[in-house]
């Protein structure tokens, strides 16, 4: 069985690594924006302005990553496994070839992927199309996704 707390911890570590990179990028962009060589020499010279925009974007990314990490640390587990809801880890089996797909529905960090014990777990938020199809479903239900002709059976809800 896959341990959700280990998945969540691995995801937090990924986000913290991204945060470290974003902080370094923001520092460099800020230094470049305020460096003497970034001063405009002509009206068309915009390097300093571009670096300032980059620094601002990195600052917003830093704040978003910090918020995502905090939300993950404070998230609570669903009480029931009867119907799929936010916080559930779902094991899906392809009805054609019996391949397995793991999906973890979380409030943040959608689009990330965590690999644990050679198993890939796709992180999705409730607004993602795959999550919209899974929410309120139960074990043994069959779901299909608009972008695939394949159907999946819900095998396990953790």
From the structure above, extract its key features:
alpha+beta; six-stranded mixed β-sheet; coiled coil; 41% helix; GreA/GreB_C_sf; 158 residues; 2 domains; Chitinase A, domain 3; single chain
Written account of the structure:
- One of its GO terms (molecular function) is translation elongation factor activity.
- Residues 55-82 form a coiled coil.
- The protein is of the alpha+beta class and 158 residues long.
- It has 2 domains: 4-74; 89-157, Transcription elongation factor, GreA/GreB, C-terminal domain (Chitinase A, domain 3), CATH 3.10.50.
- Helix content is 41%, strand content 20%.
- The protein has 3 helices and 6 strands.
- It has helices spanning 4-34, 47-74, 129-134, and strands at 89-94, 100-105, 113-116, 119-124, 142-144, 151-157.
- A 6-stranded mixed β-sheet has the order 3-4-2-1-6-5.
- Strand 1 and strand 2 (100-105) form a beta hairpin.
- Helix 1 packs antiparallel against helix 2.
- The radius of gyration is 21 Å and the shape is elongated.
- The mean pLDDT is 89.
């Amino acid at each position: 069985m896959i341990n959700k707390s280990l998945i969540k911890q691995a995801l937090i570590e990924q986000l913290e690594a991204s945060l470290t990179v974003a902080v370094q990028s923001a520092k460099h962009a800020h230094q470049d924006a305020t460096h003497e060589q970034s001063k405009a020499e002509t009206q068309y010279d915009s390097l300093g302005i571009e670096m300032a925009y980059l620094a601002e974007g990195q600052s917003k990314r830093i704040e978003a990553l910090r918020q995502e990490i905090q939300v993950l640390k404070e998230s609570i587990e669903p009480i029931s496994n009867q119907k799929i809801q936010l916080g559930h880890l779902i094991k899906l089996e392809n009805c054609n070839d019996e391949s397995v797909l793991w999906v973890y529905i979380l409030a943040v960090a959608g689009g990330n992927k965590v690999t644990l014990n050679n198993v890939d777990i796709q992180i999705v938020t409730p607004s993602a199309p795959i999550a919209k199809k899974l929410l309120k479903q139960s074990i043994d239900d069959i779901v299909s996704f608009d972008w695939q002709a394949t159907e999946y059976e819900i095998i396990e809800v953790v």
